[in-house]
Design goal:
Elements (H helix, E strand, L loop, with lengths): L6 H14 L2 H6 L3 H13 L4 H9 L4 H18 L9 E7 L3 E8 L12 E11 L2 E8 L3
Length: 142
């Protein structure tokens, strides 16, 4: 599959992959730097070096890859646990020709009273890559 033509399109694909549990799609949306970071974190939390090594060079068999990516998905969902995944929407925060920041926001309010700004669940920091737009980092509110 690969990346998307716009940062918003990329964010929509990211949200769909997280909602639907499409781990291969999720992995495809990450930049090489983001993949390296994910693998480094895996190594830090005790994923065996042999698995990390195979994932780094792309030789992990389907079962190992699937298990690892399932854990990545669990981690991302945990990071977003305070938000309703089905309500999150992408919102462009900042963009230039080579990078962008896209908020994953949750609309709030019930239509009664003054409109409220949406709550940010996370921000995707994305950049242009040879494959198109890819995710470099996921920033969370503090």
């Amino acid at each position: 599959m690969g990346a998307d033509e716009t940062p918003i399109g990329l964010a929509r694909r990211f949200l769909a992959a997280v909602r639907e549990g499409k781990t291969d799609e999720l992995w495809d949306l990450l930049s090489p730097a983001a993949r390296t970071h994910v693998l480094d974190v895996g190594e830090q939390i005790g994923v065996p070096a042999s698995i990390i090594g195979r994932m780094r060079i792309g030789t992990a068999d389907d079962a190992v890859r699937s298990t690892f990516l399932d854990e990545v998905l669990v981690g991302i969902r945990a990071d977003l646990r305070d938000s309703d995944l089905d309500r999150l929407e992408p919102e462009l925060v900042d963009r230039d020709d080579h990078s962008a920041r896209v908020g994953l926001v949750e609309p709030i309010g019930d239509g009664v009273g003054p409109p409220m700004p949406p709550l940010p669940a996370a921000w995707l920091v994305v950049s242009r890559h040879e494959r198109g737009w890819v995710i470099d980092r996921i920033d969370l509110p503090r």
